[in-house]
Amino acid sequence: MKTLIAPSILSVDFNNLQQSIDIVNRSEADWLHLDVMDGVFVPNLSFGFPVIDSVAKTTQKPMDAHLMVIEPDKYIDRLRKLGVSRVTVHYEACPHLHRTVQAIKKAGMKAGVSLNPHTPVALLEEIINDLDLVLIMSVNPGYGGQSFIENSCPKIEKLRQLIDTKKASALIQVDGGVNFETGRRLIDSGANVLVAGSFVFSAKDPIDTINKLKKL
Ligand code: DX5
Ligand code: ZN
Protein backbone atom coordinates (compact mmCIF):
# COMPACT_ATOMS: atom_id res chain seq x y z
CA MET A 1 0.00 0.00 0.00
CA LYS A 2 0.96 3.65 -0.44
CA THR A 3 2.50 5.28 2.62
CA LEU A 4 0.14 7.60 4.49
CA ILE A 5 1.39 10.88 5.97
CA ALA A 6 -0.03 12.43 9.12
CA PRO A 7 1.53 15.84 9.88
CA SER A 8 1.48 16.74 13.59
CA ILE A 9 0.63 20.33 14.54
CA LEU A 10 2.37 20.00 17.93
CA SER A 11 5.27 22.21 16.93
CA VAL A 12 3.40 24.91 14.99
CA ASP A 13 2.85 28.52 16.04
CA PHE A 14 -0.60 28.33 17.65
CA ASN A 15 -1.04 32.04 17.09
CA ASN A 16 -1.22 31.17 13.40
CA LEU A 17 -2.87 27.81 13.69
CA GLN A 18 -5.09 28.39 10.68
CA GLN A 19 -2.02 28.87 8.50
CA SER A 20 -0.76 25.41 9.48
CA ILE A 21 -4.15 23.81 8.91
CA ASP A 22 -4.21 25.40 5.43
CA ILE A 23 -0.76 23.98 4.69
CA VAL A 24 -1.94 20.50 5.57
CA ASN A 25 -5.17 21.00 3.59
CA ARG A 26 -3.27 22.05 0.49
CA SER A 27 -0.78 19.16 0.75
CA GLU A 28 -1.13 15.48 -0.08
CA ALA A 29 -1.28 14.63 3.65
CA ASP A 30 -3.70 11.85 4.48
CA TRP A 31 -4.54 12.61 8.12
CA LEU A 32 -4.03 15.45 10.59
CA HIS A 33 -2.25 14.18 13.73
CA LEU A 34 -3.34 15.75 17.04
CA ASP A 35 -1.07 15.24 20.06
CA VAL A 36 -3.06 15.49 23.27
CA MET A 37 -0.93 15.50 26.47
CA ASP A 38 -2.12 15.65 30.07
CA GLY A 39 1.05 16.37 32.05
CA VAL A 40 0.55 13.09 33.93
CA PHE A 41 1.14 10.28 31.45
CA VAL A 42 3.81 12.45 29.80
CA PRO A 43 5.75 15.32 31.39
CA ASN A 44 4.16 17.98 29.18
CA LEU A 45 0.84 19.65 28.42
CA SER A 46 -0.28 20.35 24.87
CA PHE A 47 -3.88 21.07 23.95
CA GLY A 48 -7.36 19.67 24.35
CA PHE A 49 -10.97 20.13 23.27
CA PRO A 50 -11.06 23.89 22.52
CA VAL A 51 -8.18 23.57 20.05
CA ILE A 52 -9.53 20.37 18.49
CA ASP A 53 -12.89 22.11 18.13
CA SER A 54 -11.25 24.98 16.20
CA VAL A 55 -9.20 22.63 14.04
CA ALA A 56 -12.31 20.57 13.24
CA LYS A 57 -13.96 23.60 11.68
CA THR A 58 -11.43 24.02 8.88
CA THR A 59 -9.44 20.83 8.44
CA GLN A 60 -10.20 18.89 5.28
CA LYS A 61 -8.17 15.90 6.51
CA PRO A 62 -9.43 13.21 8.88
CA MET A 63 -8.35 13.95 12.46
CA ASP A 64 -6.03 11.36 14.02
CA ALA A 65 -5.94 11.87 17.81
CA HIS A 66 -2.93 10.55 19.73
CA LEU A 67 -3.92 10.56 23.39
CA MET A 68 -0.91 10.74 25.72
CA VAL A 69 -3.18 10.79 28.74
CA ILE A 70 -4.27 8.57 31.60
CA GLU A 71 -7.91 7.45 31.65
CA PRO A 72 -8.55 8.11 27.94
CA ASP A 73 -12.02 6.49 28.18
CA LYS A 74 -13.31 9.72 29.69
CA TYR A 75 -12.73 11.59 26.41
CA ILE A 76 -13.98 9.16 23.76
CA ASP A 77 -17.47 10.55 23.46
CA ARG A 78 -16.38 14.18 23.14
CA LEU A 79 -13.76 13.31 20.54
CA ARG A 80 -16.40 11.57 18.47
CA LYS A 81 -18.69 14.60 18.75
CA LEU A 82 -15.86 16.82 17.49
CA GLY A 83 -15.56 14.62 14.40
CA VAL A 84 -12.31 12.81 15.21
CA SER A 85 -11.87 9.75 12.97
CA ARG A 86 -9.17 7.82 14.80
CA VAL A 87 -8.23 7.60 18.45
CA THR A 88 -4.95 6.09 19.58
CA VAL A 89 -4.40 5.36 23.26
CA HIS A 90 -1.24 4.22 25.02
CA TYR A 91 -0.80 0.61 26.06
CA GLU A 92 0.98 1.87 29.19
CA ALA A 93 -1.99 4.08 30.20
CA CYS A 94 -4.77 1.49 29.82
CA PRO A 95 -5.16 -1.27 32.41
CA HIS A 96 -8.35 -2.40 30.61
CA LEU A 97 -7.10 -1.95 27.08
CA HIS A 98 -9.62 -4.32 25.50
CA ARG A 99 -12.50 -2.36 27.01
CA THR A 100 -11.02 0.97 25.88
CA VAL A 101 -10.49 -0.28 22.32
CA GLN A 102 -14.05 -1.60 22.12
CA ALA A 103 -15.41 1.72 23.44
CA ILE A 104 -13.58 3.66 20.70
CA LYS A 105 -14.93 1.32 18.02
CA LYS A 106 -18.43 1.37 19.48
CA ALA A 107 -18.35 5.15 19.23
CA GLY A 108 -17.77 4.75 15.49
CA MET A 109 -14.08 5.63 15.35
CA LYS A 110 -10.99 3.65 14.36
CA ALA A 111 -8.97 2.39 17.33
CA GLY A 112 -5.21 2.49 17.70
CA VAL A 113 -2.79 1.49 20.44
CA SER A 114 0.58 3.12 20.92
CA LEU A 115 3.70 1.57 22.40
CA ASN A 116 6.41 3.55 24.18
CA PRO A 117 9.97 2.78 23.06
CA HIS A 118 10.55 0.23 25.85
CA THR A 119 7.25 -1.64 25.43
CA PRO A 120 7.61 -4.92 23.46
CA VAL A 121 5.29 -5.59 20.52
CA ALA A 122 4.65 -9.12 21.86
CA LEU A 123 2.35 -7.56 24.48
CA LEU A 124 -0.16 -6.91 21.69
CA GLU A 125 -0.48 -10.58 20.79
CA GLU A 126 -3.95 -11.02 22.32
CA ILE A 127 -5.41 -7.76 21.02
CA ILE A 128 -3.81 -7.22 17.63
CA ASN A 129 -6.85 -8.55 15.74
CA ASP A 130 -9.07 -5.91 17.39
CA LEU A 131 -6.89 -3.00 16.33
CA ASP A 132 -7.11 -0.70 13.31
CA LEU A 133 -3.68 0.73 14.00
CA VAL A 134 -0.55 0.30 16.13
CA LEU A 135 1.52 3.39 16.79
CA ILE A 136 5.20 2.74 17.44
CA MET A 137 6.78 5.65 19.32
CA SER A 138 10.23 6.29 17.90
CA VAL A 139 10.92 8.88 20.63
CA ASN A 140 9.73 9.05 24.23
CA PRO A 141 6.35 10.78 23.98
CA GLY A 142 5.98 14.29 25.33
CA TYR A 143 7.89 16.60 23.02
CA GLY A 144 8.38 17.32 19.35
CA GLY A 145 11.83 17.68 17.83
CA GLN A 146 13.57 14.77 19.59
CA SER A 147 15.98 12.43 17.88
CA PHE A 148 14.93 9.11 16.43
CA ILE A 149 15.46 5.95 18.49
CA GLU A 150 17.21 3.40 16.27
CA ASN A 151 15.56 0.32 17.77
CA SER A 152 12.28 1.44 16.17
CA CYS A 153 13.13 -0.22 12.83
CA PRO A 154 13.68 -3.77 14.14
CA LYS A 155 10.63 -3.24 16.37
CA ILE A 156 8.48 -2.48 13.32
CA GLU A 157 9.79 -5.63 11.63
CA LYS A 158 8.67 -7.65 14.67
CA LEU A 159 5.26 -5.97 14.61
CA ARG A 160 4.88 -6.67 10.88
CA GLN A 161 5.61 -10.34 11.62
CA LEU A 162 3.03 -10.42 14.42
CA ILE A 163 0.39 -8.81 12.17
CA ASP A 164 1.10 -11.27 9.35
CA THR A 165 1.16 -14.32 11.64
CA LYS A 166 -2.14 -13.34 13.23
CA LYS A 167 -3.66 -12.35 9.85
CA ALA A 168 -4.49 -8.98 11.41
CA SER A 169 -5.13 -5.81 9.42
CA ALA A 170 -3.77 -3.10 11.74
CA LEU A 171 -1.82 -0.30 10.09
CA ILE A 172 1.65 0.43 11.48
CA GLN A 173 2.13 4.11 12.31
CA VAL A 174 5.40 5.64 13.53
CA ASP A 175 5.81 8.88 15.45
CA GLY A 176 8.93 10.81 16.44
CA GLY A 177 12.03 12.01 14.65
CA VAL A 178 10.65 11.25 11.20
CA ASN A 179 12.52 12.86 8.28
CA PHE A 180 13.38 11.74 4.74
CA GLU A 181 16.16 9.44 5.95
CA THR A 182 14.41 7.78 8.92
CA GLY A 183 11.13 7.76 6.97
CA ARG A 184 12.67 5.72 4.15
CA ARG A 185 14.05 3.16 6.62
CA LEU A 186 10.75 2.96 8.51
CA ILE A 187 8.87 2.20 5.30
CA ASP A 188 11.44 -0.48 4.42
CA SER A 189 10.85 -2.01 7.87
CA GLY A 190 7.10 -2.20 7.25
CA ALA A 191 5.57 1.10 8.40
CA ASN A 192 2.35 2.29 6.70
CA VAL A 193 1.78 5.71 8.28
CA LEU A 194 4.42 8.33 9.08
CA VAL A 195 3.75 11.12 11.59
CA ALA A 196 6.00 14.15 11.17
CA GLY A 197 5.97 17.35 13.19
CA SER A 198 9.06 19.54 13.37
CA PHE A 199 10.58 18.20 10.15
CA VAL A 200 7.53 19.41 8.22
CA PHE A 201 6.81 22.67 9.97
CA SER A 202 10.41 23.86 10.30
CA ALA A 203 10.99 23.25 6.59
CA LYS A 204 11.17 26.19 4.16
CA ASP A 205 8.38 24.59 2.15
CA PRO A 206 6.18 22.44 4.42
CA ILE A 207 3.77 21.45 1.62
CA ASP A 208 6.59 20.19 -0.56
CA THR A 209 8.08 18.35 2.45
CA ILE A 210 4.78 16.56 3.13
CA ASN A 211 4.44 15.64 -0.55
CA LYS A 212 8.02 14.34 -0.68
CA LEU A 213 7.48 12.22 2.45
CA LYS A 214 4.49 10.72 0.71
CA LYS A 215 6.66 9.73 -2.26
CA LEU A 216 9.49 8.14 -0.25
C1 DX5 B 1 5.57 13.32 20.53
C2 DX5 B 1 4.37 13.41 19.62
C3 DX5 B 1 4.72 13.53 18.19
C4 DX5 B 1 5.50 14.75 17.84
C5 DX5 B 1 6.45 14.36 16.76
O1 DX5 B 1 5.17 13.02 21.81
O2 DX5 B 1 3.57 12.25 19.74
O3 DX5 B 1 3.58 13.41 17.35
O4 DX5 B 1 4.74 15.84 17.41
O5 DX5 B 1 7.31 15.38 16.59
P1 DX5 B 1 8.60 15.29 15.69
O6 DX5 B 1 8.15 14.87 14.32
O7 DX5 B 1 9.11 16.66 15.76
O8 DX5 B 1 9.50 14.26 16.33
ZN1 ZN C 1 1.91 11.86 18.20
What is this entry, summarized?
This is Ribulose-phosphate 3-epimerase. The protein is α/β, with parallel strands linked by helices. It has one domain: TIM Barrel.
Write the layout of secondary structure elements.
Blueprint: E1 4-7, H1 17-26, E2 32-37, H2 49-58, E3 63-68, H3 76-81, E4 86-90, H4 97-106, E5 110-115, E6 133-137, H5 152-165, E7 171-175, H6 180-189, E8 193-196, H7 198-201, H8 206-215
Parallel strand pairs: 1-8, 2-3, 3-4, 4-5, 5-6, 6-7, 7-8
The structure holds D-xylitol-5-phosphate (DX5) and zinc ion.
Zinc ion binds near residues 66 and 175.
* Helix segment tally: 8
- Quote the CATH topology: TIM Barrel
Q: Summarize the amount of helix as a percent range.
A: 25-40%
Neighbour order of strands in the largest sheet:
1-8-7-6-5-4-3-2
Percent of residues in beta strands: 15-25%
Structural class call reads alpha/beta
Q: Determine and state the CATH class.
A: Alpha Beta
Structural domain count: 1
Strand tally:
8
Computed CA radius of gyration, to the nearest angstrom: 16 Å
Main pleated sheet? 8 strands, parallel
How far apart, in Å, are the first and last alpha carbons? 13 Å
Overall description:
The chain has helices spanning 17-26, 49-58, 76-81, 97-106, 152-165, 180-189, 198-201, 206-215; strands at residues 4-7, 32-37, 63-68, 86-90, 110-115, 133-137, 171-175, 193-196. By secondary structure, the protein is an alpha/beta fold. The protein has a single domain, classed as TIM Barrel (Alpha-Beta Barrel), CATH 3.20.20. Strand 7, helix 6 (180-189) and strand 8 (193-196) form a beta-alpha-beta unit. The longest helix is centred in the last third of the chain and has 14 residues, at 152-165.
